[in-house]
Predict the 3D structure of the following.
Amino acid sequence: MKEVPVKLFSPLTLGDLELPNRLVMAPLTRIRSGQSGVPGELVALHYTQRASLGLIVSEGTYPSHAGQGFPGQPGLVEPEQLAGWKAVTDSVHAAGGRIVAQVMHAGRVTHESTNGGFPVVGPSAIAISGTTRTYDGKQDFPVPHALTDDELPGIIAEFVLASKNAIAAGFDGVELHGANGYLLHEFLSPASNVRDDAFGGSPENRARFVVDVVTAVTQAIGADKVGLRISPEHNIQDARETDAADLVATYGALVDGIAPLGLAYLSVLHADPRGDLVQNLRARFGGVFLVNSGFGAITARDEALGLVRDDIADAVVVGRAAIANPDLVRRWRDNLPVNEPNPITYYADGARGYTDYPALAS
Ligand SMILES: Cc1cc2nc3c(=O)[nH]c(=O)nc-3n(C[C@H](O)[C@H](O)[C@H](O)COP(=O)(O)O)c2cc1C
């Protein structure tokens, strides 16, 4: 009997990359780069072990010191950080892999004790409720400084410079982090953005800053090297989006604004990738489309197979299963047993739960 090819394990053209399969390693913050934000040999080993995934998206990486969200997070700012990343990307490429940098400005999801004393910024002066882990222990989230019109071009310039730095450090492209309640998402959500200028109020206005950032980065490094991640209706870190009509209008305006740019991909995190909201965004985008069903149930083999087989997306973004299985592609392709991830070691130090998950013997 002739074997039916499984689409999840077939190649995909994404921007100027040829992916050998449609499993994309999710951006996964692992805070193992110390106070200097320089990714070292352990980080290089972690990503290199996972080079058989179709594409690796790096952990969220800060474009400016003010934009650092977590202790131990790596940056794309200082020469030492870029040298560290160059060693990572060289190692991934030598192992046959492809890797893009997730450029993440934390916005108000940080503290002066984490970001080196820089002002914490956001679209509006509204703090997140609760506490954040800083270099000085847990502290309340501060009230952010509401970025003025005059300051917005400077933030765009940070995204542009960090993206150029990423390319110079050997990354194959960048993913702009518009998801999960960080700066770009804060502009989209009516709960975190109450501005009354051209960047707030209507859905079109709230989408404008993200469109401007994506446009500027695209002009700087080329659309085929730029992806965007969004998480409509995720309701995380107080970036709440609870009005269905507003949600459709806001993300519709965003996607309509970026569609003409011809990005490498759009990546959507949403609990229901098969639903109308996500599939309408896919139709409006028209390009390579990635999905991930979020933090609830861990992405499993059957879900990933089904999402690509049923043409819900061109590729599937996989987080925790890729943490625990450096050789995930082989295990899922051949339906072999998998390691379970250990959440205790997600945000910890050292090799444990990071580079010591075993691959299967061949
Ligand atoms: C430890 C950990 C760190 C994460 N860090 C990031 C991040 O830096 N950027 C991002 O966009 N999402 C981040 N996420 C979300 C993941 O990309 C993904 O959406 C989530 O793990 C759900 O997918 P899964 O079920 O395949 O794990 C993180 C998730 C986990 C578990």
In short: The longest strand covers residues 55-61. Residues 7-345 form a domain with the TIM Barrel fold (CATH 3.20.20.70).
